[in-house]
Amino acid sequence: MIKVGFMPLLDSASLVAAAEKGFAAEQGIELTLVRETSWANIRDRTIIGHFDAAHMLAPMTVASTLGVGHVRVPLVVPCALGVGGNAITVSLALWERMAGAGAVAGGAPAMQGAALRRAVTEQERLAGEPLTFGIVYPFSCHNFELRYWLAGVGIDPDREVRLVVIPPPFLADALRAGQIDGFCAGEPWNSVAVHAGIGVIALATTAVWPQSPEKVLACRREWALGHPRELAALVRSIHRAAQWCEQPENHAELARLLAEPRYVGAPAELLRRALAGRLVLLPGQADRQLEGFFATARDAATFPWTSHALWFHTQMVRWGQIAYAEEDIAAIAATYRPDLYRRALEPLQAKLPSADWRAERFFDGKVFDPASLPVYRKYLER
Amino acid sequence: MSERGLRILLVDQNVMRASVLEEGLREAGCTDVIVVRDMQNVLRRIVDADPDVIFIDLENPNRDVLEQMFQVSRLVRRPIAMFVDRSDTDMIAAAVDAGVGAYIVDGLKKERVKSILELAVSRFHAFNRIRDELEHAKQALEERKVVDRAKGILMKERSLSEEQAYALLRKAAMNENRRVVEVAQSVLTAARLLK
Which residue of B65, B73, B97 to mutate against A (max A Cβ within 10 Å)? Predict the structure, then answer.
């Protein structure tokens, strides 16, 4: 039996489908999913071996491998659990101010950002409390994507706004209570806020970083070393499940499954729309198609790109979570294991990327290409 | 550290569990215990309390909130997670099993932390036992209600005494290799359908 911890989020879909739709059984493994309540629990229970593997925030694996904010336990990422699925949602009041400054529903990051920049300046002029945004964890793509966008439109995320951690199930309440003015989180939590009539989805983070990763499958390096066959079977079952999840004809069934209280426990209709990338951005309006909003399988969505791990490192350095040390780079690159992914998928003869890393492109035209150390260092200097 | 006793702050939404731990700590001589039940202004309260050890129940999603506060806040002395070093793995596993997370202020003597964490673990276990017993008692009561109702139906429909009705349920359960309460539940279902 393989025990895998997960958090109630849309991107647990491939794991849920692997367990429920027979993909794990097809690979000869018994997959048991255990729902958790915090990322800290996910990390601790993976580290001490309660879980063989877990649905984990991608940057958390790098943090654990380096021992930032916690004990140093090397984790490995043999496959990713999809791309996208995150968005930045703001309160109705903040949206009104942004709209007054030129933001439009579905607008591009630069446009929405310029509007937010004006709202932040206005807030400073009024000498009010800085605008506050919720994130789900310090070592998360949400944190880095939000910060990248803010900084890219000229807002200092540490000085001009306040970022606080709020667990996803509490985000809508915090927004309603005015405790936060916006948040960056995965689905279904953005749609939940819009559905409740208290938030507007200002931006999908795939507009900030196209094909941005989100959760990964993580396990202790020791477990990976000791259980190569189980791990390979698990990766294969996730790969197959991810393909099933992506088929539009399966979305209704998958949404119903995820809606069950033991999994995500959110309305099936919201989950179905998020799976299809059709979100309602403003309360009461029709849904609209967001290109590339969420993918479980297409465009190598389960491939563990080494460039992701390295980019997280640049952001951890950029935002002061860790000091730059050249000797860390090898350990970070070794966290992501495209070699394990390739080996696991060999029997399926799937079409795989030829390289283990790629150039990552962002909304501001910048490119992160870790091909060589000088480029990497230069990127860190920005 | 100072001469004063350890100051312990406990973040727990469960009133009963919090008091079970608080009581245990007091019995062990830790009289300086502060219980925080909701997350409103929790950072302020931690800053004011300046605790040496912070406990949080692992069922609480706000654990992630605490971790960020510890990482970014310059106001609190930096508490670190209970993973003091790798040799403590057993202790950590025991704590996670019991459902308690601990953060200690850097520099605190390991021995003191260990004894206090062990105490917290045993108290959390004690609470879990109480909760399980309560659950069992509740379930037993529910089951008795079902059996009583089934007996009543049999007594009325088949003119049996209470003992005869129960004997009939038990015999059916033995024959079908089921629990008496399951048979009783079938009787209730059947009675409802036949009504």
Answer: B65
